[in-house]
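Request: Could I get any protein with tokenized structure?
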Amino acid sequence: MSTSAKQSRTDESLPDATFGAAAMAPATAQLPGVYPREMGPNTMMYLQEVVDSGLASNMVDRFTSYLAEMHGMKFAIGTTGCTQAIFAAMMALDFEPGDEIIASPISDYGSIAGAVFQNYIPVFADTLPGTALIDVASIEKKITDRTRAIIAVHKLGLPCDMDAIMELAARHDLVVIEDVCQAILSTYKGRLAGTMGHLSCFSFDSEKTCGGDIGGAVLTNDEALFHKLQNRGIARGAVQRPGFGREYTSRGFAVQIPQCSAATTLANLEILAPQVEARQKSARMLDERVAQIAGLSPYVVPDERTHSYWMYGFVFDPDAFTCSADDFAAQVAAGGIEGVGLGRYYLMPAGVPFLDDMSQAQKFPYCKPPASYDYVYSGDGVPHAQAFLDRWIRWFWTEKYTEQHVELMAAIILDVAERNRR
């Protein structure tokens, strides 16, 4: 990479990326937006309890207990976000600097940030062709004697092939972390996402399927891991020594969810199931209509899984149209579905140039030792993921969509398709 290219990508004058509400398209006269969110009927009561208690409420425990029970899991901690949830999981795992974490290539930086800050090395496997989900065969090719864990991202709202991932992990003695940040209440062979790995991480940031202002959580059935999550993610690695007080026996960082965020999230978890059902119903209706438009394909949901639709999208065939996928998306947005676009920024190997710089310069932990070999971060290393994101057109979904909204969206998409057909 040229010096000028490196300067351009690190220029402090570049605009900051947007997140949360700022990144979401607003409602239009014809279609509702994600905001304002519906808040659970108990929201104000729970917030009032926090206030009336003088901040001495047990709201965090009630939230984590509810979430764990909802998923049939034994233990949970609440965190300040999804990035912090995976960070807590990484802190709880006693790996060494330079150990490798295999991750989904179509994801968000939050999926790997915890590994990066623990000085573990992210290694990206490819996706299954035509999907946003990690390919088990590609995972196996990436396993080395330094591999310690797999982060399986249930991207968009659809679970990965968890039986195959867990079987592979068992053969190689690897920890599996489910990233459920976009897929709460989706299912795989009748099991909820987040109930199959050794650890699972959730997001309750305001724009997520269950938005609770800002927050996250980690679930596990492993009691030893749970105690490490508590100690390192809440107590910052401290223990009590008689006659002295707190001493820090391991590296930790406090990431506990605030009481008010726990209150709003708990209230919104209570109304989540019918919201997900509404998302699924309207998405299926649009799938049926998109499937009838030559050159477009709805995203495939395998029979043994359910999709909870944090995002909706379809696959664009460039050979069927005179315009590019970007132009097609822009025309759909101009037609009235605001926020439609491509999600190339989800291609994590291409989205972390600072890691590639560190690897090329052999900065710790990419120096040898502790690194095992030279690592390269590029979209070219995950061709299936890169090809999918070049053809996948998406936007944020909401439970507010009705059949009339679906008919309008279908008409807009059809009109753009017919105007640009070869």
In short: Confidence is low (pLDDT under 50) at residues 1-8.
